[in-house]
Amino acid sequence: MASKVRNVILCLSCLLLFVGPSSSLLETLVQGQEVKDGDELVSAQGNFKLGFFTLESNNYYLGIWYNDNRQRQDNLVWVANRDSPIFNNSGSLTIDDNGNLKISHGGGLPIVLYSGQGGSNTSAVLLDTGNFVLRELNNSEELWQSFDYPSHILVPGMKLGVNRKTGHTWSLTSWRGVVVPDLGVFTFGMDSNHTNQLVILWHDNIYWTSGSLERGHFTSSFSGISDSYYNFSYISNENETFFNYSVETSFTKSPRLVIDYLGRLSDDRGILVDCISRFSGSSKVERCMPAQLPECRSPDDVFYSHFTFMYNDGFKFSESENLTVMDCEAKCLNNCSCVAYASTIEDAQTGVRFGLAHRQDLMDL
Ligand SMILES: *[C@@H]1O[C@H](CO)[C@@H](O)[C@H](O)[C@H]1NC(C)=O
Ligand SMILES: *[C@@H]1O[C@H](CO)[C@@H](O)[C@H](O)[C@H]1NC(C)=O
Ligand SMILES: *[C@@H]1O[C@H](CO)[C@@H](O)[C@H](O)[C@H]1NC(C)=O
Ligand SMILES: *[C@@H]1O[C@H](CO)[C@@H](O)[C@H](O)[C@H]1NC(C)=O
Ligand SMILES: *[C@@H]1O[C@H](CO)[C@@H](O)[C@H](O)[C@H]1NC(C)=O
Ligand SMILES: *[C@@H]1O[C@H](CO)[C@@H](O)[C@H](O)[C@H]1NC(C)=O
Ligand SMILES: *[C@@H]1O[C@H](CO)[C@@H](O)[C@H](O)[C@H]1NC(C)=O
Ligand SMILES: *[C@@H]1O[C@H](CO)[C@@H](O)[C@H](O)[C@H]1NC(C)=O
Ligand SMILES: *[C@@H]1O[C@H](CO)[C@@H](O)[C@H](O)[C@H]1NC(C)=O
């Protein structure tokens, strides 16, 4: 009997060794700790995880994603260093002695997410909303939160709009390509005229408008975000003007509104807003701004996109122009001698650089 009890105690103590403080189960990062590549923070109820991830390329990013087994692209909600990838798995998130929240890595200067004021006592917690919040411990003051720096994805609890006191805007910015998180050419946010509508911009041009918000829904009958699953609110006071929203979760446990590199808006059900198809006779063109076309093009033209590698030597843009696939499409549309466009780099879907073909024999459209 006694030996049995001793066995149990022994087992408990070895168990304790294994479940003891482990950086992969905590929701909070305190000063002096680090989240290394491979470690994860998990929110209290287990809804979200924070950690480093990589896509098809050898670029590493710090991000937040729904805690499920889908591919990272499909459950991601936030990317911290989209314009500053780390080139190997040396990344580490810390709060240093001065209160800086930063990503250190082997390849150069750290990426600072929040600049502390020396000597502060702070910690950062991953909440079950998907928000990562840095707080001063002595008075719980919020110093920084990931929801204030949206990536290309909106989740309930986030805002789209502007803080009138600081001028800080909350908006989404698309990626540059399928697996290229760098800032792309589409933004999704509140109309800068502070009218109660949402807009998608291509560069600074209006690309799509939601119509104004009435009783939780946008007036555009074709706008996919206007359906019964979405309840938007528009709030405007002396401090801030913004939209927020809630989602009827019967269609998804992991609500996300995503603006993709082609300027399309989608959720877990599929594409909700798609202005690309305004040239292919699709019916989903409601509220897309008509393109300003030269006389040689007609809105009825059937226009094909070819995201494949171009072997022919057609006309090429200088790589320094750094075009996305949609920039290239616009260039092609506006140049009457253009019959097709394609990538000049083999990994076409990443779409960082594109060329424009002018040879009439390139394609038989
Ligand atoms: C990561 O890359 C940097 C240079 O970019 C190098 O100095 C460092 O040793 C590498 N670290 C690892 C863990 O490979
Ligand atoms: C909390 O800490 C900060 C930074 O050290 C300090 O400036 C502030 O006065 C402290 N607040 C309280 C209530 O102690
Ligand atoms: C930081 O704040 C925590 C909680 O208020 C406190 O227990 C701890 O002693 C503080 N640390 C320092 C270095 O002030
Ligand atoms: C905002 O106002 C300017 C000037 O009146 C107008 O040109 C622009 O189209 C408006 N933006 C939207 C999204 O309506
Ligand atoms: C939509 O949200 C508003 C504000 O949060 C709330 O008052 C209203 O009841 C909600 N409507 C529906 C249909 O859920
Ligand atoms: C605006 O901010 C001030 C200062 O933080 C606060 O006292 C006030 O209640 C805020 N107003 C609204 C409508 O939230
Ligand atoms: C939107 O923001 C308002 C004001 O902060 C808040 O009262 C409301 O609960 C928020 N709605 C949602 C759906 O988050
Ligand atoms: C292209 O432009 C984007 C945004 O301006 C920038 O982040 C990226 O580094 C540029 N890429 C190249 C290859 O110049
Ligand atoms: C159209 O493309 C040709 C190259 O084939 C170029 O010389 C011309 O300047 C372009 N026209 C416009 C309006 O961009």
TrEMBL record:
Membrane topology: Single-pass type I membrane protein
Protein's name in the database: non-specific serine/threonine protein kinase
Top-rank taxon: Eukaryota
Enzyme class: transferase
Documented EC number(s): 2.7.11.1
Major place of residence: membrane
Gene (name only): LOC115989688
Family matches, as PROSITE patterns: BULB_LECTIN
Classification via InterPro entries: Bulb-type_lectin_dom, Bulb-type_lectin_dom_sf, Pan_app
Catalytic activity, reaction form: L-threonyl-[protein] + ATP = O-phospho-L-threonyl-[protein] + ADP + H(+); L-seryl-[protein] + ATP = O-phospho-L-seryl-[protein] + ADP + H(+)
SUPFAM superfamilies: alpha-D-mannose-specific plant lectins (SSF51110)
GO cellular component, as recorded: plasma membrane
Start and end residues of each Bulb-type lectin domain: 26-147
Keyword Amino-acid biosynthesis: no
